[in-house]
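Fold this sequence, please.
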Amino acid sequence: MTCADSSIARLEDEVAALRTQLDALSRAQMDNRATFCLISDDFEKVLTVLMLAHSAAAMDMECSIFFAFWGVQAVKRDSRYRGKPAIEKALTAMLAANIGGLPSTKYHLAGLGPAIFSKLMRDKGIATPADLMQTAVQAGIGLRACATSMEMLGIAPDELLPGVECAGASGFLELGVRSRVSLIL
């Protein structure tokens, strides 16, 4: 092998190594995405995550919300009892029927707190959680309900709001790992 051949082989090796590094950097680059995981059914946290998601969508960020555990309550249409075993019926009776019945963390006041907050918000022209949920799909926000949480709480896919998909935790993680913003509330 000549000196020139040796130099060319070394340069080809260096270019191959640089391509490998560039590929790794490209895979690690963050997408212009916001991913939220909502594990609470508290009025304030649901409102916060929906406001953040709408703001991200308005900033042209791809946006997704993963509703897990108690957060699944925010994407239910209404309570359904037919065909459920006794324990699931009892859970259904204890939990909010839909986003309009979510409890407040503070000042719940036997259910009056969220109703008072919603009225104040409407009077001031501020979107309520129910309003924001209705416009989320149109805003391009991906809504995903945790399949495991749904199964545990006895919520069937047909009890979800239109536009809400069932997903697993790995689906949330796949989106979250490359997101510029990733929050759990």
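The radius of gyration is 23 Å. The mean pLDDT is 88.
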